[in-house]
Amino acid sequence: MSDVAVRSVAAGRARLTVPWVRARPGSAGLVDERLTGMRGFRALRIFPRTGSVVIWMVPDLLDVDRLVAALEEAPPASTPAKPTRSTPDSSTGELARLVVGGAVLAFVALRRLLRRPRIATGSSGLLGAITLFTGLPFFRGALRSLRGRSHPGTDTLVTAATVISLVLRENVVALTVLWLLNIGESLQTLTLRRTRRAIEELLTIGEERVWLVRDEGVEVEVALEEVAPGDVVAVYEHHRIPVDGQVVGGEALVDQAAITGEALPVYARAGAEVYAGTIVTSGSLTVRATSVGADTTVGRIISRVEEAQSDRAPIQTVATRFTQRFVPVSFALAALTYAVTRDARRTMTMLLIACPCAAGLATPTAISAAIGNGARRGTLIKGGTHLEGIGRVTAVVFDKTGTLTFGRPLVTSVVTLSDRYTADQVLSLAASGELHARHPLAQAIVAHTEEQHLRAPIHQACEVVLGMGMRAELDGTRLLVGSPALLRRHGVELTEEAQGWTEQLRGGGETVICIAHDEDLIGLLGVSDAVRSGADTVIRQLTDLGVSRVVLLTGDAPETAQAVADTLGITEVHAHALPEGKLQLIRDLQAEGHTVAMVGDGTNDAPALALADVGISMGAHSSHVALETADIALPGDDLRQVPAVVELSRHTLRVVRQNYGLAIGVNLLGLVAGAGGSMNPVLAALLHNTSSIAVVGNSARLVNHTPHLPPTTDTILTAAPLEDRRVR
């Protein structure tokens, strides 16, 4: 009997449950390989978290038995799959371990605070049972190590500490270590689930129903999954484009920032290529679909995120390296002591001294304190591995739009070209023409005029010339505000002086807006995605912290990217980079031996954020998928938090090393004394507890640590009131 279950079949769509997809999410890509090329196959959607596979076929060619047969065979055991300690089925157990462990520790602390008598023998047994329950995930990991399925690591360390502590009735110490480690495990599991949910939500592209254009020109509303390559869809203002395709009719401004990273909307008309998930901000389009569903650009972004997360190499932590060396040495010394002395009591003392409880506390207490420190400043660090990883980065890759820049246009230059108009008058007239336009450039001009406390004259009539600008009537005169093409269309040519200014502004990465009053060209505005305050200082701070490569990566034009890079002192620039290109750059840097941090905020950054050794989402306006994919989420738009979290990580690593130094120093002292027979088990237990307290106290210093932040400098030129022929 087949393990693949058929859940529903209707109108060329079949939903199946494939057990091996749920059991081994890293192998989900094999579904696409098996179905691609099958006659009648149209599109596919995979949900590894539930094992659901949704397949769209040409209705007449839908053969459920053929689909089941294609997916029946599970991939071989050698097929890579992303290992995870916890699955959705274990969520109840995780919560129970955290709640029970926390409640018992609180109860014990309260008794000691009230100076109650010691816990009775029966209660001590119950405490031991609770400790065993709390440590189940780590015991399973240690068992895998004993069976040779993995190298001895943290699980072996924790299990050894727990067993020895229970034998020596140090139940509270063991429970404390296990509870702290369970918090870290739960945080990582929660992050994985939320990332999966964000990716699944992205697959909907925001539009569940679309307008399909029939051959007769009639528009019919249908479900998105019914659209196939070759179909024509109509997209109206403020709606997302549901497919990748080519424009066959209409004209519109399209916000492509989520896919390409371009800060300004692009003008799309017949023949232009458009992407699923982008937004029509003005106008309307009819689009012939070339790709739908998972085959679209946004669908491929999702696939790249999943692949990057499974391809990502794990960072070897301080705890991992320590346990690989310390655990075998500890037990070897205890065994040697027994072999030489045949003294069980002395061997027991050696085991107690070698008990790695203090070492087990060294990393989790420091990491917990540092994560709490970050949380106080609004920085979400999604696990200790990521906190350690950011401190080791040697290359930082910055997305441009919305990260190094504001992600929205600002007026950065005003030029007057007529002696009859001041710069303030040029700006006011430009705002007058743009008062009723919804284009981001128009809104930037109006907003800047208001900031300068200038009054924009009210025009009597206006006309939107899509893709060019605005034509307005002002007190019987004509006002043109827009591109040079708009002026030429109305018989106004750029003078030699204006052409020189245009080239200069464009060379600085600014978009040029021309203003003509009647037949005269009176001025130019430069509008750009301005660099954030203090960004140049942040780049210098990262260099001072030892980051050897700082890269600017963007889907924007090379001229714009280079202008931003020159402002910030960044020497390495990659422009016109789509999500696949960003992913490849991360791979190339890692292949060169760099530990890479990626800083971004958009959906198109998600694959690179997932593959980088540490992904950092930047800004309050980061896309949902970028926030969930990243390992560290920074607050607001303060770029200073990037070097701040690097500095916090490095300080935390120093504290962790100090903790291990304390633990190892006490252990070595005790081992020498124990081997010589000059220490009894009671004194060994006292020494052992002292080292644990010292480690916790040292870690607690991190809670109040203040990372050094670089001073900010304003990179947006904001001079005094504008004057004739003066650039701001």
Automatic annotation (TrEMBL):
Keyword Cell cycle found: no
Gene3D superfamilies: Calcium-transporting ATPase, cytoplasmic domain N, Calcium-transporting ATPase, cytoplasmic transduction domain A, HAD superfamily/HAD-like
Transmembrane residue ranges: 126-143, 163-184, 351-372
InterPro entries linked: ATPase_P-typ_cyto_dom_N (IPR023299), ATPase_P-typ_P_site (IPR018303), ATPase_P-typ_transduc_dom_A_sf (IPR008250), ATPase_P-type_domA (IPR059000), Cation_Transport_ATPase_IB (IPR051014), HAD-like_sf (IPR036412), HAD_sf (IPR023214), P-typ_ATPase_IB (IPR027256)
Subcellular location, record wording: Cell membrane
Keyword field: ATP-binding, Cell membrane, Membrane, Metal-binding, Nucleotide-binding, Translocase, Transmembrane, Transmembrane helix
Database matches in Pfam families: E1-E2_ATPase, Hydrolase
Positions of the P-type ATPase A domain: 208-306
Membrane topology qualifier: Multi-pass membrane protein
Name by which UniProt lists this protein: Cation-translocating P-type ATPase
PANTHER family: CADMIUM/ZINC-TRANSPORTING ATPASE HMA2-RELATED, CADMIUM_ZINC-TRANSPORTING ATPASE HMA4-RELATED
Family per record: Belongs to the cation transport ATPase (P-type) (TC 3.A.3) family. Type IB subfamily.
